[in-house]
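Hi team,

Filling in the usual template for the complex we talked about on Friday. All components are listed, including any nucleic acid strands or ligand strings, so the model treats them as one assembly.

SUBMITTER: L.P.
PURPOSE: interface mapping
COMPONENTS: two
RESIDUES: 626
SEQUENCES:
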Amino acid sequence: MSDPIRLALVGMGKIANDQHYPALTSDADFDLVACVDRDGSCLAHLPYFVTIQELAESGLTVDAVAICTPPQVRHDIAQFALEQGWHVLLEKPPGATLAEVVALRETAQDRGLALLASWHSRFAPCVDQAREWLAGREIKSGRIVWREDVRVWHPRQHWIWEPGGFGVFDPGINALSIATHILPDPMFVEQSELFFPGNCSAPIAAQVRFRDRKGALIAMDLDFRQEGKQSWDIVIETAGGTLTLSNGGADISTTGAPPPPRDDVLPGEYSALYRRFAELVRNSSCDVDVRPLRLVADAFLCGRITRVDDFIE
Amino acid sequence: MSDPIRLALVGMGKIANDQHYPALTSDADFDLVACVDRDGSCLAHLPYFVTIQELAESGLTVDAVAICTPPQVRHDIAQFALEQGWHVLLEKPPGATLAEVVALRETAQDRGLALLASWHSRFAPCVDQAREWLAGREIKSGRIVWREDVRVWHPRQHWIWEPGGFGVFDPGINALSIATHILPDPMFVEQSELFFPGNCSAPIAAQVRFRDRKGALIAMDLDFRQEGKQSWDIVIETAGGTLTLSNGGADISTTGAPPPPRDDVLPGEYSALYRRFAELVRNSSCDVDVRPLRLVADAFLCGRITRVDDFIE
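RESULT (copied from the run log):
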């Protein structure tokens, strides 16, 4: 076993505290050596820096960083980290634009560093079973329903309503990270309707119609205004039965053939993510799948915009 | 010399008549064998079809098609053409979304067919000189000004105001096709302001701020409401002088070192495009540079939208 990877967490918001910190502290492959946060949030027993530049100047030895800031500032931090010779994990979405993510991949490859554009939802318990079940089956149609209460899941995350925050596509991109992973054919946007609150620069709801290359319709319904029961479901109709992946990939059911068996003991999504990152760091290689972000960009590019009521948190 | 490539023109609108037809009929590499247009426009002496399906059913031998329809319908026509075993040239922009263009490239590669995502502005007379002059120079900043009168240049092109028509980015993508070709480093969107008429689903003006990987600012000013003098200019400040590429790449001037010499006799933009396409067809290879379209998608993805006066043609 190699020495642990000395990692700094950058951006100590909700996702870093809820997910990255527990995954890292229970992973022998990583040694969490510092945290960076412009607002001064820090897990008390770790060296703390306000900016990544301060971290670099401190002389602390760092092998890698995980960037959990809002997407709008991720690129500059990642570019700086790569210039220090540090490997980089990017929370999802990997950036506020596609071109900046592609440019980071080029930088990482040129410098022989690992870069992971992470899609945690792909590591939900039943996603690989769904992928295996769908492989080789003829897709007839699909339906993605991702309806959640923004006030519950994204409290005070003002960046989500700013340009580059993506609004309801911030959770919606999780659905697309699963769909692009499990569906056998590429899909693309055929029609997109975006609902923008009058006081926001990002949509609060969206209806997007995709087609796969063979013409199957995949309809996506995203809504941030869902109270009561929440939905994170993907249903795929095939010529050989229906697959239902629900609760964001935690549950699976099928008609026709049963789903394939899975391992009894599965790591959590973020533990699996860090296993993947450790593998990339050991090999100095990149895993940057831009497909989910590209579909979101396409939904904006050809979106028809409707104004709806202001959003007041 | 090989046999001429038997080509059908699909979508007989302004660009097909103004540019493709004259370029093709003076090119010995191509034999224009049919035209396809849903509205029945056709150059009289050619076999004519309303749809590409009719063309396929006619039994006429076709090697390649050039697709000049509005972008919203390009993908399905191109996919059908590739399924017939025909090589494909796509007018710019190559589609209404990025993912559909990437999917077409995969289809073409899988089938061993040529696919050209054409960017005619890159073949403007002084573009290669500009690229050569900028190579290796340190870029300080840039300014792209593309201001034209939509009523003059896009009469009755209602598709331009629909989702996937891109509005002012339809000409603006020409500027980006040049900028991505001549600038030594990749650039990406830092800030984007889009001005949508109340009655349109696409912007009539845009202010986009790009940065290149080394931090240089490239400011882009697009406006469809320009009366009087029209502007299609790119100015790049470098550590070794200023380059001005004006009139859409037709004129060049520099301070410091003069621009490199160029050939006395240059083909027109579309003649050069068809030379490139002939080369790809002979080699069954693809040239699909998505960078200009990706930057437009990014400008929409992180755009801040302002409503402006309705557009009445």
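MY TAKE: Residues 4 and 29 of chain A are 5 Å apart (CA to CA). Chain A touches chain B at residues 72, 75, 79, 96-100, 102-103, 106-107, 163-164, 166, 186-189, 191-192, 196, 201, 213, 291, 294-298, 300-305 (CB under 8 Å).

Thanks, L.
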